[in-house]
Amino acid sequence: MDLKEKYGEWGIVLGATEGVGEAFCKKLAEGGMNIVMVGRREELMREKAEKFKAEYGVDYKVVRADLSQPDDACDKIFAATEGLDMGFMSYVACLHHFGRFQDVDLATHEQCLNVNVISFLRIFHHYMKDFAAKDRGAVINVSSMTGISGSPFNGEYGAGKAYILKLTEAVAYETKKTGVDVEAITLGTTLTPTAMKNFPKGPAGDAVVKIALTPDQVADEAFEKLGHEMSIIAGERNKASVHDWKANHTEDEYISYMGAFYEN
Amino acid sequence: MDLKEKYGEWGIVLGATEGVGEAFCKKLAEGGMNIVMVGRREELMREKAEKFKAEYGVDYKVVRADLSQPDDACDKIFAATEGLDMGFMSYVACLHHFGRFQDVDLATHEQCLNVNVISFLRIFHHYMKDFAAKDRGAVINVSSMTGISGSPFNGEYGAGKAYILKLTEAVAYETKKTGVDVEAITLGTTLTPTAMKNFPKGPAGDAVVKIALTPDQVADEAFEKLGHEMSIIAGERNKASVHDWKANHTEDEYISYMGAFYEN
């Protein structure tokens, strides 16, 4: 798809360094859009951006920003895109911390909240104002099945992902009849570098890896459905799993299933 | 139920002035617990607290605090309960603002976020540390069906309610085998003073009022199931409605239903 023609010259991906964010950047480059990559590892982003430039002839900017510092991060990001013809944004970045809620200190919870909720809110709002004013642009925000089920021992992460999901769904409806396409994509297990560090050991982890999607598979579905659906669950197996839990189990059963997963 | 015997001397309700918060205070008083009422209207809280004192012989404290100012509010609240034998907390407070996401200014969104997410996180964490250390206490946090469906034209509110729901569910599982009982209760339309100001006019609003619960009905179910269930949807009709949407409709259909509700 000619994304540049449809949405604008530049797209920004928050959490672009690797995994799903990197796969989204590749989609933008394939679609002819220049890319603003935001993450913490500047050199790694630059390496990958140079590859996109060589392969697809697109321009790029790299913004080193720590989304757990919303004031500073937003200043840098908004300054870097000031005056550009922005046409796409995607919030992929997230941060989590395992442990019982009250055993993790508040500063750590707030650091996660800054990434998963506060920076998300500010950045989504900033680009939506621009896109709505031009009646042109697209957003794909990334949630997680932990935002649907709840996530014991990782509860604040699941809560943040629920926030992203429900805000994005609402905005997707609000913009449905406009030139701005908004989509929430909810991921199950995805073979990203971060996820692969966190899989539980043993059979539970092995079973999960077998049915996991790759970042490219997620990106294919996300961009294919952009403008057609508001809220999608990535992959057929995840869709079927969520539907089964919603249709055939109580809330308590779904939470308990998720809790038992990390209790092992 | 003798709540004092089971959970401790004092309970705190955030958003205690009227509606569901007031009904929860009454439950605490009936169960023999002293009450810390937190809200913005000090005189009104004091009037109601005096009634509970007269009727049930319990002690009370009233804390005037604005939960949209988390630093100041938490200082006041934690100081007021310092040294008390706390055994219950409930977060009922919430704030919303109608409008398309990008048409509401960021300061207003962040004010809502402060009430619905940041003060909630800090206060829940504060009392959970205390309850977990004593292995004794109870929490009932209040969510909304907008947190399950998403809430177009009121999107950030629904997102905050999803955050409360998913964090509370996770903590409920983590504490399931302990002396601390944690519950999330998700409300449909409830006949509170705030809700009654916001009902849409005409047949849609009338239909909603007919099936709404009273705050006392919500409180009865919330306290009856405390310690037995982790996540409940208040009322049989709301339970059936949520189950029907989850089992028989897509995410997009659920969002569209909610969106059409406020579009009229």
From TrEMBL, chains A, B:
It holds the Pfam family adh_short. The keyword Oxidoreductase applies. Belongs to the short-chain dehydrogenases/reductases (SDR) family. This is SDR family NAD(P)-dependent oxidoreductase. Keywords: Oxidoreductase. It comes from Paratractidigestivibacter faecalis.
